[in-house]
Amino acid sequence: MAGSFVRQYLKDTLKAIEAIPLEKVETAIEWFRQARAAGRQIFVCGNGGSAANASHFACEVAKGASFGRPARFRMLALTDSITTITAYSNDVGYELAFLEQLKNFAQPGDIVIGLSGSGNSMSVVRAIEYANSIGCRTITLSGHDGGRLAPLGQLSIHIPANHIGHSEEAQLAVLHMISYYFMEESWDKAPGW
């Protein structure tokens, strides 16, 4: 019984990963390259499993794709300051927890990435709305039908998986494609270096 569940789960996860729009991931990589060259900041946010993916991604880019390299990424996960998140959640409302952090740090031309398995996480939606309003570049990763989030992303990477687990696994695959591109990049062959 467990064996058939495991095989079906893997099959559905692979189907979600195969649905990743690779040309959009390539565009995201180019945006990251441009942000690094211009010294722009990159912010990422999400809730639950997407929050874990956001933190993991920020670490890979800020450390793995930056340590010992002639140019470094300036990247932060808005999910990582638990005191700030809980203060805004308690005193103002959770839907503003990422948006208010962006008001402190984001500037036009920075990149803001919103992750949501459902596409309807209001804290992420509000952050992307704000980022768009001040002239940031926005990237959204969403599952299901894209929800409210997908149409907001200037670069929308929508993976039509209706299961949160499969959506988050495909999301992580996208984030690994971006981070490992830069971690495995050859500096002697990279354009402009």
Structure in a nutshell:
The protein is of the alpha/beta class. It has helices spanning 2-18, 22-38, 49-64, 82-91, 97-105, 122-133, 164-183, and strands spanning 41-45, 74-77, 111-116, 137-142, 155-158.
Describe this structure in words.
The protein is globular, with a radius of gyration of 17 Å. The protein has helices at residues 2-18, 22-38, 49-64, 82-91, 97-105, 122-133, 164-183; strands spanning 41-45, 74-77, 111-116, 137-142, 155-158. The protein contains seven helices and five strands; from the N terminus they run H-H-E-H-E-H-H-E-H-E-E-H. Helix 1 (2-18) crosses helix 7, helix 2 (22-38) crosses helix 7 (164-183) and helix 4 (82-91) packs across helix 5 (97-105). The chain has a single domain (2-183), classed as Glucose-6-phosphate isomerase like protein, domain 1 (Rossmann fold), CATH 3.40.50. With 193 residues, the protein is α/β, with parallel strands linked by helices.
Structural class: alpha/beta
The assigned CATH architecture is 3-Layer(aba) Sandwich
Strand order of the largest sheet: 2-1-3-4-5
Mean pLDDT: 94
Gross morphology is: globular
Report the sheet-strand fraction: 5-15%
How far do the termini sit from each other? Answer: 55 Å
Q: According to CATH, what is the class?
A: Alpha Beta
CATH topology: Rossmann fold
Compute the number of structural domains. Answer: 1
Helix/strand order? HHEHEHHEHEEH
Task: Show the helix and strand layout.
Blueprint: H1 2-18, H2 22-38, E1 41-45, H3 49-64, E2 74-77, H4 82-91, H5 97-105, E3 111-116, H6 122-133, E4 137-142, E5 155-158, H7 164-183
Parallel strand pairs: 1-2, 1-3, 3-4, 4-5
Helix pairs in contact: 1-7, 2-7, 3-7, 4-5, 5-6
